Every structure is written in structure tokens, then in C-alpha cells.
């Protein structure tokens, strides 16, 4: 190879590296994501959430080279192309998968929490008690092999308004303890409307089996019996 060709090739490589060094940090910033009108509502909710100090890529891009190439380089480039040249998905029909490993990298202590002790529970479940081992649920999701995980129950924790104003977004369940009406703000029939309507009974339906036992719908399956009469009304 002639010296001039080597110089040109070196300049191209150096330019690509320099461009990547500038472009990658810019595309990592949440405001870049929000430049797409489809993402704007999710961005606005994120700004109000408990995760507002956590950048999009921290949750939506898995660590490691493989995660970056697939989640950031491939999916990110595809989404930009669809936004520029195709038909972007409406905000209320967006579906994004967040790997449970990413959640647990910050929240692994939830697998050790004593969820029967009310001192460890947030409102409103602090008042009604909750018997729900996160570790057992994660194990069950793994055995089912249907891609379930943390976001099966907590998908809305960052990009939705807290249900009835509670400080965290939890599964809708059957939260009638305070008599305040609530319904999803998304168009009926949309992906996010259906997700918001989902509750614990999606598995605890008196039909689904786990380890040879049917998952009961009885209140005491999930709540402390001594607190049920006072705080839950159906």
C-alpha cells in the first residue's frame, strides 16, 4: 500500500473515531431521545420521576459490548431511521424491554427485603401489609421463560404518573382503599392502556400453577390478614 493511501486511511479512521467520540455522548443525553415526538411524553414523565437523575441509556442499553451494539448501535440507528423516513409508533403504543439485570444492578437489595415487616414497605402497601417475595417472583419468571421480570409489574415506574398520586407507580391491583377514582389516561385499547389495567390477578387467577400449586386469588395470599378488614374494601 502506498504511503499516501495509508495517510488517507489513517485520516478516515481518526475522523470516524473523533466523530464517534462527539456523537455518542450527544446521543446518550435524554434530550436527544426527547427530540423524537414519540419519546417526548416519556421524557416529560421521566423528568418528574424518582429516576430523573438516571440517563436513558443506563436502563435501555445493557452493559458490555454486545449490549451496546444491539441496544444502542442497532436499535438506536433503526429508531432514528424510522423517525426520519418511516412512520414512528404512537407514544401510547410504545413497547420497550428493560432487562431485569439492569434494574437489579441498582436495586439488588430488594431481593433481601423483609416484605412482611411493614417498616420496609412504601405507601400505600405499608398500610395493608404485603407478603410478596421479589426473589420468588424473579425465580418464577425465569422458570416460565416468557421474558418476564421487573418491568412485568413495574413497567410504569419511570414513564407514567404515579397511580392516584402515590409516590411510586405500582401495579394497579385493586386499590380501593381510599375511594378515589382512577383510570388510565391513555386511549382505550392502546398498549399503555392495557398495561395500566393489568394487575396481580394476571397470574394469581386460581388457574395458573407454580411448583405444583395453583396461584390463589385470596386476599391473604398477598396481604397480612390482620390488616385486611381495616384497610381493604372490595
UniProtKB/TrEMBL annotation:
Domain NapC/NirT cytochrome c N-terminal residues, every copy: 5-162
Top-level lineage group: Bacteria
Keywords noted in UniProt: Electron transport, Heme, Iron, Metal-binding, Signal, Transport
GO cellular component, one term: cell envelope
GO molecular function: metal ion binding; oxidoreductase activity
Compartments, as annotated in UniProt: Cell envelope
A Pfam entry, by short name: Cytochrom_NNT
Protein name, per record: Putative Cytochrome c-type protein
Organism the protein comes from: Nitrospira defluvii
Amino acid at each position: 500500500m502506498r504511503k499516501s493511501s495509508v495517510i488517507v486511511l489513517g485520516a478516515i479512521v481518526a475522523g470516524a473515531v473523533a466523530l464517534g467520540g462527539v456523537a455518542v455522548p450527544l446521543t446518550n443525553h435524554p434530550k436527544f431521545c426527547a427530540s423524537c415526538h414519540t419519546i417526548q411524553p416519556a421524557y416529560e414523565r421521566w423528568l418528574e420521576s424518582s429516576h430523573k437523575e438516571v440517563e436513558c441509556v443506563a436502563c435501555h442499553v445493557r452493559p458490555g459490548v454486545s449490549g451496546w451494539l444491539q441496544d444502542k448501535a442497532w436499535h438506536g440507528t433503526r429508531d432514528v431511521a424510522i423517525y426520519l423516513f418511516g412512520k414512528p409508533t404512537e407514544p401510547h403504543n410504545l413497547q420497550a424491554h428493560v432487562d431485569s439485570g439492569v434494574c437489579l444492578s441498582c436495586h439488588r437489595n430488594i431481593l433481601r427485603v423483609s416484605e412482611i415487616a411493614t417498616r420496609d414497605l412504601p405507601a400505600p402497601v405499608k398500610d395493608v401489609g404485603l407478603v410478596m417475595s421479589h426473589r420468588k417472583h424473579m425465580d418464577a419468571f425465569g422458570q416460565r421463560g416468557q421474558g418476564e421480570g421487573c418491568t412485568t409489574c413495574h413497567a410504569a415506574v419511570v414513564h407514567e404518573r404515579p397511580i392516584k398520586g402515590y409516590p411510586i407507580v405500582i401495579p394497579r391491583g385493586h386499590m380501593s382503599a381510599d375511594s378515589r377514582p382512577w383510570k388510565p389516561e391513555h386511549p382505550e385499547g392502546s398498549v399503555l392502556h392495557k398495561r395500566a389495567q393489568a394487575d396481580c390477578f394476571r397470574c394469581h387467577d386460581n388457574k395458573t400453577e407454580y411448583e405444583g400449586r395453583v396461584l390463589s386469588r385470596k386476599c391473604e395470599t398477598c396481604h397480612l390478614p390482620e390488616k385486611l378488614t381495616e384497610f381493604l374494601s372490595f
